[in-house]
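Table S2 (text version). Query chain:
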Amino acid sequence: MKSVFGNGGRWLCATVVALSVSATGASVAGADSAPGGKELVVLGDSFSANAWDLMDPSNSCLRHGKTAWPAQLGDLMGVYGTDEMVDPSCPGASIDSGPGWTLAQETAKADKAGAFGPNTKLVTLQFGLNDHWGQSKQTLWNSLPGCVFDLVDGCGPDSVAQGRMTDYNGVSGALFADRMRNAVTYIRYYAPNAHIVLVGYPELFPSGTDVVCLNFFGVAPFVQPRGRAVVEYFDRIEQAQREAAQLLNLDFLDARALTAGHGLCSAEPWLNGVADPRTDIDGLFFHPSTKGDAVVADAIYDRYGK
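Corresponding structure-token output:
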């Protein structure tokens, strides 16, 4: 990962001090005259932003869902719409794969807004689904047309070797942690009092199942009975997030457990289909509805936001 952080060489300083602390055990709190920081900082992909602006081809990430969990969390904390919340989360963002925004770039953007300092209370990270893993150079979303929606060949385990599905075999907690470590080190150094929380993804499909589906208009579900590769990808991402959080000494919010039983194939989904009136009829499909995001926002607030 490239070190693209701003604020006058702060990243280099953070790295040097972090290495020194590792060797000596000294405390770094208060060692830098950093900005005071913002109370809530949100870094993530479309599962954080939960909005897509078709009129923004440059993907400047200025649009965020008004009912996305960061917005609801900000409301609960009393900082939404104020200078005490910084949210550069962006659809298509990855840890470090690109070509969209990366964790490092979002961190730099937040840093330039004065996000990190001793007054920073909470920093959330939600990444992983959009990255390249293993031998594959395609993302999960690039895989959908040629895999999930292929009713002839399906999207079983063989689809990875055939190049129709991104390579979930390369997903691991150790690699996940390695790819996030620079940014986490930086955030922890400049926001020493903040809870840093790695937020998991909600349940789209139950773990271990073979069936993948998406509801159209609330009455016409598309069902892929051979969708195990997609489910396996989500399973491995969740496990990698959990392991990476432990390796990096981060808190992990298990959003999948919080939303269990309310995936896309359920009778009461908390994720949007396509124009599905049971959820948000105009919501971003495959992404949480207002209800699904409320559950995540409430859990984060109860644990870290009060």
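Notes on Table S2: Residues 15-32 have pLDDT under 50 and may be disordered. The longest strand covers residues 40-44.
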